[in-house]
């Protein structure tokens, strides 16, 4: 059944057209003005059949994407990836080691539930924007912007479509 879901998954480009990607990019940029962390969003329609048959799960794939997109490549090790695997209806948040012990698994899970709720309601763009805001709120608690301090935008704000 899982293989069929991956073979016939609805394209991420249909859920997130160009104007939607632009608004998500703007939400990431706005959030990053509140904190010194780096937020990325990546969406993947499906996994290749070989990965599905090998049992690759969304969490494992999220870590692979975290590395592939170099989300870890920040000076303060405070990058966060919101990863959405459409075929499995899974959201994963992968945070760099600079956030270990600062943001709990329960807090990340709460953000995932928020995104899931909006996705189920048929609002993919709103789901991602609300998720970005929630992640930004958590980052602002632990890595707030400092007045007068220049914060370099170290990672791209544009969503990654991995189709």
Descriptive keywords:
alpha/beta; 163 residues; 4 strands; Diaminopimelate Epimerase, Chain A, domain 1; single chain; 7 helices; four-stranded mixed sheet
Describe the structure.
This protein has 163 residues and is an alpha/beta fold. It has one domain (2-144, 154-161): Diaminopimelate Epimerase, Chain A, domain 1 (Roll), CATH 3.10.310. The protein is 47% helix and 13% strand. It has 7 helices and 4 strands, in the order H-H-H-E-H-H-E-E-H-H-E. It has helices spanning 2-7, 12-15, 18-32, 49-53, 58-68, 105-120, 124-142; strands at 38-44, 79-85, 90-95, 160-161. A hairpin with a 4-residue loop joins strand 2 and strand 3. The longest helix is centred in the last third of the chain and has 19 residues, at 124-142. It is globular, with a radius of gyration of 15 Å. The two termini are 21 Å apart. The mean pLDDT is 94.
What would you say about this model in short?
The chain is of the alpha/beta class.
Give the CA-based shape.
globular
Average pLDDT for all residues = 94
CATH topology: Diaminopimelate Epimerase, Chain A, domain 1
The domain tally reads: 1
Residue share in helix: 40-55%
> Structural class of the helices, strands and pairings?
alpha/beta
Number of strands: 4
* CATH class designation: Alpha Beta
Domain TPM: 15-137
InterPro entries: TPM_dom (IPR007621)
Protein name: TPM domain-containing protein
């Amino acid at each position: 059944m899982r293989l069929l879901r991956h073979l016939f998954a609805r394209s991420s480009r249909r859920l997130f057209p160009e104007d939607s990607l632009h608004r998500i990019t703007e939400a990431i940029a706005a959030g990053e003005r509140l904190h010194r962390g780096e937020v990325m969003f990546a969406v993947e329609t499906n996994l290749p059949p070989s990965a599905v048959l090998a049992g690759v799960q969304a969490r494992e794939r999220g870590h692979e994407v975290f590395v592939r997109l170099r989300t870890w490549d920040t000076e303060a090790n405070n990058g966060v990836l919101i990863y959405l695997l459409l075929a499995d209806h899974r959201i994963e948040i992968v945070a760099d080691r600079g956030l270990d012990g600062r943001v709990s698994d329960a807090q990340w899970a709460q953000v995932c539930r928020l995104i899931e709720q909006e996705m189920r309601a048929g609002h993919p763009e709103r789901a991602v924007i609300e998720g970005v805001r929630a992640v930004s709120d958590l980052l602002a608690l632990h890595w707030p912007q400092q007045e007068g301090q220049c914060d370099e935008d170290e990672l791209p704000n544009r969503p990654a479509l991995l189709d």
